[in-house]
Amino acid sequence: MSQSTERHAQKARTREAILHGARALIERGETVTVTRAAALNGISKATAYRYYSDAQTLSIEAALSVQTRAFSDVVAGAETTREKVCAVSAYIVDLALENEPAHRQYLARVLDASVADKGAAVSLRRGQRITMFEEALKDAHDTLLPDEFIEVVYALSAATGIEAVIALRDIVGVNTDTTRETVLIIANAILDRYLGPEKPNGRTR
Q1: Orientation of helix 146-158 relative to helix 81-98, angle to 10°
Q2: Residue-wise pLDDT tens for the chain (205 aa)?
């Protein structure tokens, strides 16, 4: 694993630890603060505020993250890398569509945070989609250069989620079905670029 990939993985683990603390506070009916959520897993206040600049944003993301499914459930039945990536893409866009008001509210809070502290907002927005795409592409890791692996993960991450939903529904003006179809078209185009086109028999790497 490259230093860059390991650094991203460590950031994801720290972020998830803070979220875990926030979910624990919510489940106990206690007030969520960034400091208290981080402290439950031994994370310092200074580190926590690099990921979450305010308690409201943390609370919204913690509530949303409860709804997410495990990677193994998302890709159940998928055999190839392409099938796994498309399953993750479909799951993430469906999650955004099914919980659109909450996701829009969360994105609004993130944009507010980016005005105050851009670095914190970048860390905050590194969500579960990146971890899922990294896992989906694991079998193709050895066939891609380290920079290519990161590029394809970032490209897929940028092409799905609430950001893609807003672009397609608000700007392009398409319905939910077309939004989902378009996200999958883009995912397949990205995979064609990095892994090669799907073979005639429907199989690819």
Answers
A1: 30
A2: 566 667 777 888 898 899 999 988 888 888 889 999 999 999 999 999 988 888 888 887 887 776 678 899 999 999 999 999 999 999 999 999 988 877 887 788 777 766 766 555 444 445 678 989 999 999 998 899 989 999 999 999 999 989 999 999 999 999 999 999 999 999 999 999 999 987 665 555 4
Residue that is written with structure tokens 């008001």 in the block:
101
Check residue 139 and report its DSSP letter.
G
Based on the number of CB atoms within 10 Å of its own CB, is 52 exposed (0-12), middle (13-18) or buried (19 or more)? Answer: buried
Q: Can you read off the two tokens belonging to residue 158?
A: 């940028």
